[in-house]
Amino acid sequence: MTKALKKFFPVFAGPTLLAFMIAFIVPFFMGLYLSFTKFSTLTNARFVGADNYARAFSEKSHFLPALGFTALVSIISIVTVNLGAFALAYFLTRKLRGTNFFRAVFFMPNLIGGIVLGYTWQVMLNAILQRWGQTIVNDWRLGLAGLVLLVNWQLMGYMMVIYIAGLQNVPPELIEASQIDGASRWQTLRNVTLPMIMPSITICLFLTLANTFKMYDQNLALTNGAPAKQTQMAALSIVNTMYKKIGQEGVAQAEAVIFFLIVAAIALIQLRATRSKEVDA
């Protein structure tokens, strides 16, 4: 049986592996090469060494401030999304009426596209702020608050579903044993429930980290970096450098490589840290 599976492995896995190579691996290494060149098209690339990386970190570049703002949005969003999602999941796994309805309602925002969400929240927030003579692009702190609210509204329901799955897999006998031993609800939650749902926490932290760090369309629609690029996140900054600054294509590619390495490193550290705390049921 094993030999038969190995024999037909290229037939079934080959097309997928080929598509992965064409769509991901080849473009990645092409992009890595282009980050060391000055180019406007793929046919006129001229090698310039590490000059693009130096320019990406220069004082004239908007990339470093964008990275800082991205980190700020991501840190706040990761904490608030996961706390809110876990709280919703915890209450919706209690024996209450209408829980399925509320699960569907909270999950629905995740189905809406980022551009639509951005413009929708821009209209709603501006309608509120105009009472005080403000708009969301008048102050970077308003833009920050708007982005965090948008991310929470979009992602919380999705993370809630993952936490619900984790909570439903906690063995009831462990909960009963802790109650028999006289543990309070908080002690049971901290010492029994949370360790048992660490796989769900690992997944949710990874997804919120990845989604907030690479956020582009919501940022574009909600603030477009205003005021004065103070609410410009890293992905939007890279796109603007690539398409709005003539002769800066190589710099934008270098910024993309740097951004990829930063996000990948943070994600790997997070995965290793949370997986080390997972326990077997």
Automatic annotation (TrEMBL):
Gene3D superfamilies with a match to the protein in the record: MetI-like
Lineage: superkingdom: Bacteria
Pfam families: BPD_transp_1
Annotated membrane topology: Multi-pass membrane protein
GO BP field: transmembrane transport
Annotated transmembrane regions: 12-36, 66-92, 104-124, 144-167, 188-210, 250-269
Protein name: ABC transporter, permease protein
Source organism of the structure: Actinomyces johnsonii F0542
